[in-house]
Write a structure and sequence with these properties.
Layout (H helix, E strand, L loop, with lengths): L23 E8 L8 H7 L4 E3 L3 E3 L2 H9 L7 E5 L8 H4 L2 H6 L3 E3 L13 H9 L4 E3 L3 H17 L3 E5 L8 H12 L2 E5 L2 H4 L7 H11 L3 E3 L4 H21 L3 E4 L1 H5 L9 H9 L3 E4 L3 H14 L4 E7 L3 H8 L18 E5 L17 E4 L15 E3 L7 E7 L5 E14 L8 E7 L2 H7 L4 E6 L3 H10 L3 E4 L1
Parallel strand pairs: 1-2, 1-3, 1-4, 5-6, 7-8, 7-10, 9-14, 10-11, 17-20
Antiparallel strand pairs: 12-13, 12-19, 13-18, 14-15, 16-17, 16-19, 17-18
Helix pairs in contact: 6-13, 6-16, 10-12
Length: 474
């Protein structure tokens, strides 16, 4: 087994400040005198990458307790209660109402030395939860760090933005349903026409385009994208980047298949997606803001690269044949038909999808003329991106649903990247095996799924809890 599950995002240069997940601010409050249940020096060291542990406040009286909790600054993300071990007569038990009124998460950290939950807090957790306090009895240090990253994401998403370009004619219509994401998570979905970035192409001269490519091209192997199309792709990158900088947005998507491609254009932003991910942004195909949000909930939360693409269950041979001119069925000698219920293909516009180089086996992505579709033939124009997924890797597949309140989480693995040598409109697809694809399909939001290497089911469950999302695991 390779180490793709531990691969982190490749970032080029200095990441803009608004794309950095903030550190959470933790306020320890100690009830009574004595040796605290949590060594704050050890805690500070453990959480240093994700949190700031403030000096502890020692409670002197019930009145002091009421004053401290009610007057905590708005930049405090959670309270860390510490007290004398195994002696649960703390102030939060005798006077819990200030916690319910303040509404801050109340985190019982694990016993650091033993890396296990402090079971003396069972009853306090249940009582406090019963009166409306957000209490977390953390199982171990690893889950504690995940919880802190999730709390950071909650702050990070507040007043954040995503930009989608193009006509809103797919079901992921930001005009119709984008407000549900804003209401749920705080992220505003901004819609702009394709002209918003295309009209900027002329702002970037050949010298700058060449400079960008000389600095960034080493991670890409140009197979069949001609110089003119490559230059246009880089200008797309620079133009979109300027808008993201202006809007202080987290990422973008372009409605290619519903707007750009049918109009006869081929200045697809595939390479722009990859380069902007290297700058710290997220990027998804077809202007699907829900896939974009799923990528936000992945890359900024897990610090890992991810990609999105169309997911096609291979058992549906009719729909696959209509879209590809071929059912793309797995070889029955290797995959008996009774196994097909849990197997799916991953494909988008001629290739697996927009796979960042660090997610590929050779750490490169191949540039080719845009791959086309069965309905819209490949014509040699455009700059597409052809990258393989690593085979035999655990992956987690997620979809945020249109309601902005439900997160689908599927446990799966990569089987292979299949090459279709006689299909110019579909050169490559990923073959995936799910633990429970039928139930995932019964709940699915869209064909667009987001893929990350590794088993992160529990991580997403914790994130969903913090963001008040309903997690459904398959």
């Amino acid at each position: 087994m390779t180490t793709f599950s531990s691969t982190t995002r490749y970032l080029h240069g200095q990441t803009p400040a608004h794309l950095l997940r903030p550190k959470v601010r933790l306020q320890p409050i100690q009830s009574g005198e004595g040796t605290p249940s949590v060594d704050l020096a050890d805690l500070t060291e453990i959480v240093d990458d994700v949190a700031i542990v403030l000096p502890a406040i020692r409670i002197k009286s019930p009145e002091h307790w009421q004053q401290v909790v009610s007057q905590l600054d708005d930049d405090i993300d959670a309270i860390i209660p510490v007290s004398i071990p195994s002696y649960p007569t703390e102030i939060w038990n005798s006077h819990p109402q200030p916690l319910a009124e303040r509404g801050l998460p109340f985190i019982f950290w694990p016993l650091i030395k033993f890396d296990e939950p402090d079971f003396w807090r069972w009853s306090a957790r249940d009582m406090l939860q019963a009166i409306g306090v957000d209490v977390q009895l953390v199982k171990n240090n690893k889950e504690g760090l995940t919880l802190l990253r999730a709390l950071a994401m909650k702050r990070f998403l507040t007043n954040s933005k995503l930009v989608v370009f193009g006509t809103q004619n797919f079901p992921w219509n930001a005009h119709a349903a984008g407000h549900l994401i804003t209401e749920s998570l705080g992220t505003e979905i901004i819609v702009k026409p394709l002209s918003a970035y295309r009209d900027k192409y002329h702002h970037f001269n050949d010298e700058l385009v060449q400079k960008i490519w000389s600095e960034r091209g080493a991670r890409y192997d140009n197979k069949s994208c001609n110089d003119k199309e490559l230059q246009t792709a880089i200008r797309s990158y620079l133009s979109i980047k300027s808008i993201l900088e202006q809007e202080q947005a987290l990422g973008f998507g372009v409605n290619c298949f519903g707007d750009l491609i049918p109009a006869g254009s081929r200045d697809v932003p595939c390479l722009a997606q990859l380069l902007l991910r290297e700058d710290g942004y997220i990027a998804a195909c077809d202007g699907d803001y829900l896939a974009m949000m799923s990528m936000v909930l992945t890359s900024y939360f897990l610090d890992k690269p991810c990609m999105m693409s169309n997911m096609y269950p291979v058992q549906y041979i009719g729909a696959l044949s209509d879209h590809f001119g071929d059912p793309l069925s797995p070889e029955e000698s290797r995959f008996p038909r009774q196994q097909w219920t849990n197997i799916a293909r991953l494909a988008h516009c001629g290739f697996v999808g927009i796979v960042s180089p660090e997610m590929t086996p050779d750490n490169k992505n191949c540039l080719k003329d845009w791959g086309g579709t069965f309905e819209i033939p490949r014509d040699g124009r455009g700059c597409g991106c052809d990258g393989d997924l690593a085979a035999g890797e655990k992956i987690t597949v997620i979809e945020l649903k249109f309601d902005g309140e439900t997160l689908l989480i599927a446990d799966a693995e990569t089987i292979e990247t299949t090459r279709h040598n006689d299909m110019p409109h579909n050169e490559s697809t990923g073959l995936l095996k799910f633990r429970n694809l039928p139930d995932f399909i019964d709940n699915i939001s869209r064909e667009h799924t987001v893929i990350v290497y590794g088993n992160h089911v529990r991580d997403y469950e914790i994130l969903a809890s913090v963001l008040n999302l309903q997690a459904k695991v398959f």
